[in-house]
Amino acid sequence: MANHTQTPPPSSSSPTVTLPPPPPPPPPSRATLLPGELLAQAAAAVSAPRDLAQAARVSRAWWAAATPRLWRTLRPRRASGLRGAVVQAALGGRPLAPRLRLAAAAAAAGGGGGAAGGVAAKGLLDYVRVVDLSGMNVPDAEVRDDDLVPLAGCVRLHTLVLRDCGNVTSAALDMVLANLQRLRVLDLSGATSLHLSRCAFVAAARGGGGGGDGLAALPPLESLRLRGFFHDPALSRAVAALWTGACRTSLRELEVEGPLTDAAFATLQPPAPSAYDGGGGGGGGGGGVPLRVLVLSVTPELTDATLQRLAPHCAAGLESLELVGCNGLSAAGLARFFRGGGAPASLRRVVLSGSHPAVDDAVLEALAGSVAAAAAAAAALPWLRELRCDACLLVSEVGLLAVVEACPRLELLSAMVCRAVAAAAVAERLAGTNVMFRFDSAA
Predict the structure, then answer these.
(1) Which residues 6+ apart lie within 8 Å of 81 measured at CB?
(2) Which spans in 167-298 are helix H?
């Protein structure tokens, strides 16, 4: 017999459960209410890439403030061009974001497609100002031409460092210079596979195949480093091309190491008078702006005529001068260079090492007198802080002490392998000062 059990109806006296209202949303953080200008200043004070990456995840406002600084500098650990067309974007050598398919971004920039990843990469490339590929010459990490193709999307790139990138050729360099008209700092030191004679701006200046387009494509560089080109016969033509293109009114720092001749500066014109007034050098027919850094290393074929051409460009703002291994210069030519503007009051660093046939006490006395005279005209103390004249066999303590007396802000004095220097006399004069004196104790 089945057991039929009925469930009793609920009692009307059972209590009613009332849920509390949901809590109000938390008030917005004060950090998210700050205006964009203050957020940008706060992001500028953060240097650690990982902290910037975390700040970019706080809110959209923080993302907008931190992302430009986070992606300002790219120092990838490796670049693989045809092996996947992927460049790992990193800051400080550590990956902070997923790998970007920069080749797709470059294709999208050129009208080749619009994948979502490519569009995102292109947006981030707009923030890039500095790309440092120096030292990437080890196996499985060397930079090749294909790895530079994505740089065409970095339209606001300011600094490109290709130091020791021995596999980059002139074709890739021409592409970079043609697309990056905002580029101002270019370091090609050690990129010995370039073959400067094949570069478009060199061929254009020579009147060869590049025509006028090569010079037009050369951006107005402010700093150019060409070190290590000991076996490139076109080095002089490459430097000469700078004075016929856009760089003639913008170049402030020039570092060259290799077989330069006087032909490299034969077309260099005196600077425009407005350049001495601190102008930006944008004018029309002027010959350039004052140089701030001048490095000529291992250039034994340069003569005094080149120094006389360079002296007016150094008179207004030269801060660092290196003449290393310039054995074709004479003592009289160096003295005329310093007296003719090569030693302004702004000069802070002078390196004359290795030019021992030319540098003697008369050269150092001309340097000291010119710096002191320029500083007196400006009603200020000379700024010279460092003097290196290593392996200058004709220098004695007389010339060194003349510089010490004229430059009270001197901090470093190096006279290694200067056999004629009485080190004890110089050390006695420098006792009680802040000048570090380096000399060969075995001399």
Answers:
(1) 144, 145, 146, 147, 149
(2) 170-179, 200-206, 213-217, 235-242
Residue 22 DSSP symbol: P
User: Which residue do the tokens 């000529």 mark?
Assistant: 296
Taking the CB of residue 361, how many other CB atoms lie within 10 A of it? Answer: 19
Distance, in Å, from the CA atom of 264 to the CA atom of 235, rounded to the nearest integer, reads 8
Backbone φ and ψ of 358, nearest 5°: -105, -35
Instruction: Give the up-direction half-sphere exposure of residue 249: CA atoms within 13 A in the CB hemisphere.
Output: 14
∠ CA(198), CA(185), CA(316), 5° rounding?
110
Give every CB contact of residue 419 below 8 A, 6+ residues apart in sequence: 393, 443
User: What's the CA gap between 293 and 349, in Å, rounded?
Assistant: 10
Matching residue, tokens 């290709």:
162
Amino acid at 322: E
DSSP, collapsed to helix, strand or coil, labels residue 94 as: strand
Residues 6+ away with beta carbon under 8 Å from 392: 352, 353, 355, 356, 359, 360, 415, 418
Q: Which residue has the tokens 């004679």?
A: 197
The interaxial angle of helices 60-70 and 36-44, nearest 10 deg, is: 40
* Spatial distance between the Cα atoms of 100 and 392, rounded to a whole number of angstroms: 53
129 or 80, greater pLDDT = 129
- Going by the DSSP 8-state scheme, the letter that residue 340 receives in this structure is I
How far apart, in Å, do the first and last CA atoms of the chain sit? Answer: 125
Query: Which secondary-structure segment (H or E) carries 321?
Result: strand 320-324
- Whether the per-residue pLDDT at 96 is higher than 60: the answer is no
The span from the CA of 75 to the CA of 56, in Å, is: 20
Between the alpha carbon of residue 276 and those of residues 245, 320, 441, the distances in Å are 21, 17, 44
Number of residues that this document lists for the chain: 443
DSSP label at residue 272: P
What is the SS3 assignment for 168-190? CCHHHHHHHHHHCCCCCEEECCC
**Long-range Cβ pairs for the range 435-438 (8 Å, 24+):** 435/404, 435/410, 435/411, 436/411, 436/412, 437/413, 438/412, 438/413, 438/414
Q: Which of 98-107, 196-205, 295-304, 354-363 has the lowest mean pLDDT?
A: 98-107
Backbone angles phi, psi at 94, to 5 degrees: -125, 135
Integer angstrom CA distances of residue 426 from 360, 401, 416, 419, 437: 16, 7, 13, 13, 8
Average pLDDT, the chain: 78
**CA–CA separation, 32 and 68 (whole Å):** 18
pLDDT at position 105 is 37
